[in-house]
Amino acid sequence: xxxxxxxxxxxxxxxxxxxxxxxxxxxxxxxxxxxxxxxxxxxxxxxxxxxxxxxxxxxxxxxxxxxxxxxxxxxxxxxxxxxxxxxxxxxxxxxxxxxxxxxxxxxxxxxxxxxxxxxxxxxxxxxxxxxxxxxxxxxxxxxxxxxxxxxxxxxxxxxxxxxxxxxxxxxxxxxxxxxxxxxxxxxxxxxxxxxxxxxxxxxxxxxxxxxxxxxxxxxxxxxxxxxxxxxxxxxxxxxxxxxxxxxxxxxxxxxxxxxxxxxxxxxxxxxxxxxxxxxxxxxxxxxxxxxxxxxxxxxx
Length: 300
Fold this sequence. Notes:
Layout lengths: L6 H15 L3 H14 L4 H13 L3 H14 L4 H13 L3 H14 L5 H12 L3 H14 L4 H13 L3 H14 L4 H14 L2 H15 L3 H12 L3 H14 L4 H13 L3 H14 L3 H13 L3 H5 L1
Protein name: Tetratricopeptide repeat protein
Keywords: Repeat, TPR repeat
InterPro entries: CellSynth/LPSAsmb/PSIAsmb (IPR051012), TPR-like_helical_dom_sf (IPR011990), TPR_rpt (IPR019734)
């Protein structure tokens, strides 16, 4: 990774890399600082240090490190772009925009700068400029799921549901498991579709993310619309397909409680606790007993 024959530096950077991959950022920083003390003007070492600082969440120190790197290796768009990203993380959007523009001026083919620029404009509330910037960013990097997702959200806010759906589908094509993108698709279908499309969107979101909250929302939607029979049927299906999932047990028990089938609801919890006797399950059962005014059982 580093252009040096110095054995000590090589060993220290290898150590830093392993610690970095293990998310031990303090240890990685200590190791890379020792390497830098041997070769203080090695750009690769300082680049690695800036990565460690960024991933540790110390954006101010990352910026200082990048500014030092620029004295060693001026005119590198990747450094300006990373500074821009740091300012975005810190909520300093005007500065982020300035650095993104600087990166683009240095190298108009460095694709990541365009996303930073669009994000900064979006955060500043310059919606039309942001839409144009996202489009340009996606011309540079068509497979960027964040760019498609952010653009979709702007279209959704503007009521342009057709374009929002197009961008969401593209975002999901490149990254299916992003919860924000799936939430936006569910929101879109709630605004534009009927019951079938909305529940299908929730089911698709569950398939994409494995987040059982989407299944609970299907049950709640049916309950809110007075469709008790289907709510119970679907909640049973969800429960039977994941017998060791507390969310699904609680979801089915909730349906029984709403139907005033208290013994059946309690039975679901008892079955679950027999298989998975843990604190979380017992706490959830007690909470449900209190919610349904079964105080004697809750205290027993």
